[in-house]
Write a structure and sequence with these properties.
CATH superfamily: Gcn5-related N-acetyltransferase (GNAT)
Strand order of the largest sheet: 1-2-3-4-5
Radius of gyration: 20 Å
Helix content: 10-25%
Strand content: 25-35%
Bound molecules: coenzyme A
Distance between the termini: 63 Å
CATH topology: Aminopeptidase
Number of domains: 1
Largest sheet: 5 strands, mixed
Order of helices and strands: EEEEHEH
Number of helices: 2
Length: 121
């Protein structure tokens, strides 16, 4: 596996990214965003399905972390994690906050509860 990590400095949204490239194809990425009050948000970690569990996320993470240590000493870093990305952040010394649960619904008129209930006798 010959993976190259490239830094992507974007001219908008205060974001910087790191791309994992294999043969001119992006197989993974992570980003960070500068926010007010000396805060950095880590976001958008992704590795393509057929390249997972080979250490690409770890390599991207370590590269970003070195950059942050070199340039943002004293700032606070936070992230929202899904189960696969949480263990690495805990390993790296991040503290676990409250758990959030994703919810959704289709927008429609709210019907009284009994009109939705199907009763078979
Ligand atoms: C999360 C994701 C980026 C991990 O990428 P990856 O290249 O497979 O991860 P790595 O092989 O570098 O693993 C690094 C560490 O992450 C953790 N990890 C990775 N995949 C995991 C999984 N499926 N379950 C639990 N922990 C996982 C482990 O701690 C692992 O360390 P280890 O190999 O020593 O056990 C990848 O699974 C992905 O893109 N998932 C879909 C998008 C997503 O959930 N992104 C996170 C948004 S918050």
């Amino acid at each position: 596996m010959d993976i190259k990590i490239v830094m992507l400095e974007m001219n908008a949204q205060n974001q910087i990214g790191w791309l994992a490239i294999e043969e001119d194809k992006t197989v993974g990425h992570i980003f960070m965003r500068k926010e007010p009050d000396k805060t950095l948000k880590f976001l958008d970690a992704w590795v393509s399905k057929d390249h997972r569990r080979k250490g690409i996320y770890r390599s991207l993470w370590n590269t970003r972390w070195q950059y942050v240590k070199d340039n943002y000493k004293g700032w606070t870093v936070y992230a929202w994690c899904r189960p696969p990305s949480l263990p690495l952040l805990l390993e790296k010394g991040f503290l676990k906050g409250d758990t959030c649960v994703y919810v959704e619904r289709v927008v429609e008129d709210d019907l009284p509860r009994f009109e939705k209930c199907f009763v078979s006798c």
